[in-house]
Specification:
Radius of gyration: 31 Å
Helix content: over 70%
Structural class: mainly alpha
Number of helices: 27
Length: about 550
């Protein structure tokens, strides 16, 4: 089958080389795009990207912005499905520039919709909501029910991420009304409805709906990306209903499919939790290891730093575009006011030259004084606007810093709680006579790996990197004031700085609470604090 694919690609490529750009070449480009889209739907992303690469060259030769836009958009969709968010954003960004410069508003909104989806994948829910809302406000007055319904469905998804269930219910009704004639889209919406029920604690309703979607899914749905969403919804509902055996069954069945790393991680996590809930600890630990491996792979694939750079580039381009739109929109108004100012100046000049009497001169002076007051008021208003804008920007920056700080504390607490849980499990196992007498080599190896994981504490590397990004000023100031501090002491003080408790710090560093208290006293003495000021108070004052 793959040989036939490559033969087809080569034929089209040679045809494009040997023949001048004709209608047949244009048809070849369209055919490539259609086949590529079909391959993407069937999850054959590599084949789809190969076809789109050939089509891209044909579109460039044709000088067709419409086709190039479609190609770049679908390349971005394929890369997003492969978790290459950086590559996806690059192609979406190129498609967006084409749409802005040469295509209509609908295509511009279409690609903006895709970019919003990347923001949501990167857990930037506020930004995703902003873009999704802009797209919806643009298309809601049209007759395109499919596009309107799709936009409403996106807003349902992002609203759940923001825990805004008033907005969820509002757009859920709109989406159901608009998509009632479109089977696949309506099914996708119902998977979101399952998650909505779960978030509201309506577990039975969620389970019944998810099971109905699973049983009614035909061949068309089972061969699409939607099938994974249905499986995930059903497994979430099973876990909520504590039906762990069903969750295990459906998860194992899902893992037989063609899944990406992110999807596999979901099923590994649920298998680990389900096996743990039914006391199948060996299985639970095995799938926990699979999940950790998947998370590490996902971290490397997504290329978040590069994605962030490209996101900033897109935002800059978007602001430039909005400014150009503003200038165009207000061009006539600016001309009118410019002419008005010129005319006013001419009239004032004529009036000044005609005035020969003191009374008239006085009136002119009064007019000039009044104009000066208006100018001063205008300048004051402009100054007030700039101050207000600056204040809002400072508040937004402070909010972002606080959000990053809360995220950092949350991550640290998650790691601490996980370490505490692992240590608790190990303590239970260590005193168990059954475990001591057990000759199960695999079980003992699993316990050994669990102890090793606790000792190595790889998550600390991720925490340290993220902490330095968020709190680089604190660390630099601390080292400048106290160059005698060791790396381990700086590490310990970083955890005190984010206000973790003694228990949480000891769990995160894998030390006893008593040793943690002693170390805290030693460092306090080393910093020269006299006891009138707490260590935490001193650190936040740096």
């Amino acid at each position: 089958m793959k040989i036939m694919r490559y033969i087809f690609i080569i034929i089209l490529f040679l045809k494009g080389l040997c023949c001048p750009m004709t209608s047949s070449a244009s048809e070849s480009c369209d055919s490539l795009i259609q086949i590529a889209i079909k391959a993407s739907i069937e999850k054959d992303y590599q084949y789809s990207l190969e076809l789109l690469s050939q089509a891209k060259q044909l579109a460039i030769n044709e000088k067709s912005p419409e086709k190039l836009f479609r190609i770049l958009k679908n390349i971005g969709i394929n890369k997003a499905e492969l978790l290459d968010y950086n590559g996806a954003l690059n192609n979406f960004f190129e498609a967006y520039k084409i749409a802005v410069d040469k295509l209509d508003k609908r295509q511009e909104m279409s690609i903006l919709n895709n970019i919003a989806g990347l923001y949501m994948q990167d857990n930037k829910m506020e930004k995703a909501n902003e873009y999704y809302m802009k797209v919806y406000d643009t298309v809601k007055g049209t007759t395109d029910s499919l596009f309107i319904g799709g936009c409403a469905m996106n807003l349902v998804s992002v609203s759940m991420g923001l825990n805004d269930y008033v907005q969820v219910d509002y757009f859920l009704d709109i989406a159901e009304n608009m998509l009632k004639k479109y089977t696949l889209e309506l099914t996708k919406l119902h998977t979101l409805k399952v998650n909505c029920y779960l978030n509201k604690g309506k577990n039975r309703q969620a389970y019944d709906l998810a099971l109905e979607l699973y049983r009614k899914a035909g061949k068309q749905i089972r061969n699409s990306m939607l099938w994974v969403d249905i499986q995930m919804s059903l497994i979430n509902a099973c876990m909520a209903m504590k039906d762990y055996q069903s969750a295990i069954f459906y998860s194992l069945d899902a893992l037989k499919g063609n899944l990406n790393i992110e999807e596999r991680n979901f099923f590994y996590r649920n298998l680990s939790d389900a096996y743990y809930a039914i006391s199948r600890y060996e299985k639970a630990f095995a799938y926990k290891d699979s999940m950790i491996f998947a998370v590490d792979s996902l971290w490397n694939i997504t290329g978040k730093k590069q994605f962030e750079n490209n996101r900033i580039q897109f935002e800059f381009f978007k602001k430039e575009k909005e400014f150009e739109e503003y200038k165009t929109k207000h061009k006539t108004e600016l001309i009118f006011w410019g002419l008005s100012v010129v005319i006013a100046i001419i009239l004032i000049w004529a009036l000044v030259n005609q005035v020969v009497k003191n009374k008239q001169q006085k009136k002119i002076v009064e007019l000039e004084l009044d104009q000066e007051k208006k100018n001063q008021q205008l300048l004051q208003n402009q100054l007030d606007e700039e101050q207000a804008k600056s204040f809002l920007e400072r508040r937004q920056f402070q909010h972002e810093i606080e959000m990053k700080g809360r995220e950092l504390v949350s991550n640290a607490l998650v790691v601490a709680n996980r370490n505490s849980l692992i240590q608790e499990i190990l303590d239970i196992l260590s005193v168990s006579d059954t475990i001591k007498k057990s000759k199960d080599v695999k079980l003992k190896e699993a316990i050994r790996k669990l102890r090793k994981q606790l000792e190595e504490n790889e998550e600390w590397k991720h925490f340290t990197t993220y902490f330095e990004q968020v709190n680089d000023t604190f660390i630099n100031s601390l080292i400048d004031r106290h160059p005698e501090l060791t790396a381990n002491e700086v590490r310990f003080l970083s955890l005190v700085y984010i206000n973790l408790s003694t228990k949480e710090i000891s769990s995160l560093l894998n030390i006893t609470p008593e040793y943690c208290k002693k170390k805290k006293q030693q460092i306090t003495h080393k910093l020269g604090l006299d006891g009138t000021k707490s260590l935490y108070s001193y650190l936040i004052s740096i």
